Amino acid sequence: MIKGVKSETIQEVDIVVKEVKNCPLKYDNTERVLIIDADSIMYFASHFPEDSLMEFPTEEERIEEAKYRTRTKLEEIHNNIEEFYNIQETFIFVRGRGNFRYKLYPNYKSNRKQKNDLIPIISFYMLNELHAIPSIGAEADDYVYDAYLLSGGNCVVAAIDKDVFYNCPDVPFYNYRSHGDTLGEFKSISKEESRLAIASQVVIGDSGDGIPGAYRVGKAWCRDNMHLGMTDYQFTKAIFKAYLKASGGNGQIAKEQARLNYSVLKLYTQDELKTINKR
Asked: How far apart are CA 10 and CA 239, in angstroms?
């Protein structure tokens, strides 16, 4: 080494190549609609950690970047799905006003951080320029579920929420969450698996939405007491048993808690929502 010359070691940077996992083996020519739960896209697109503020110092720049992220994510979802499925039409659902669950369960999503100020702006952008559909009186999940039923199974559902996945059996499901070397992943769930997953969730609850489930009764209990092939009556009996254990044997409290949590976790059709929102 020449004296007086600083030697710098050049470190190799690993380039992570993201790919879509579990792709179909061949193209499916069945005419389908694409149903997208785009709520999560708004949150991803509008998130700017502190170390990114130097690159996007003004609110105007952050808004334009968030719009760009939203457009490109939707294009990415379309491209990855249309490579394998014959998509005829696309429906994009986002949050709306007046979700009845907040009246039914005041602590619903109360554990979540304060919403980003950019989200209403991106929501307005998606509604007015990207033709998204607002989920009035409910969650986007409910509208996706209703669209799935109306399609008669001729659809592909794109979302990241497990609630949507559990409630849309026997159709292609695309999880668009990008992480590590995964750009997205195709999945599917059978009706039998769906019924077990939904019943288990009533017991376990949903920490992301602030729904505790049966106190101190978790996944291990569900594995030991629920299984594929159970009847609706058997699932109902198992759920009550879990809440009875959680309530210390108080049958009335067990029934009330189980019914409340089921009502909040359940996804609803448009007809059911009309009835609920008239009350």
From this structure: 59
CA-closest candidate to residue 41, choices 147, 119, 113? 119
Does this model's pTM top 0.85?
yes
195 alpha carbon, distance to own chain's centre: 18
Q: Can you name the CATH fold of 19-189?
A: Rossmann fold (3.40.50)
DSSP, residue by residue, 123-141: HHHHHHHS--EEETTS-HH
Secondary-structure percent of the chain, ordered helix, strand, coil, rounded to 5 = 45, 15, 40
Q: Is 111 exposed, middle or buried (0-12, 13-18, 19+ CB in 10 A)?
A: exposed
Residue 14 has a pLDDT of: 63
Helices (H), the chain: 39-45, 59-82, 101-104, 119-129, 140-150, 162-167, 191-204, 219-225, 232-246, 251-265, 270-278
Q: Taking the alpha carbons of 67, 171, 154, 232 in that order, is the dihedral positive or negative? A: negative
Q: Which pLDDT value is given to residue 5?
A: 40
CA distance 200 to 218: 9
CA 84: distance to chain centroid? 22
pLDDT of residue 172: 98
Which run of H or of E encompasses 186?
Answer: strand 182-187
All structural domains of the chain with their residue ranges: 19-189, 192-274
Residues 86, 32 contacting (CB under 8 angstroms) = yes
Low-confidence ranges of the chain (pLDDT < 50): 1-9
Q: How much is the pLDDT for 279?
A: 72
Residue 36, φ and ψ in degrees, nearest 5: -115, 125
Tokens 């739960």 locate to 37
Predicted pLDDT at 109: 86
Contact criterion met (CB below 8 Å) for 60 and 184: no
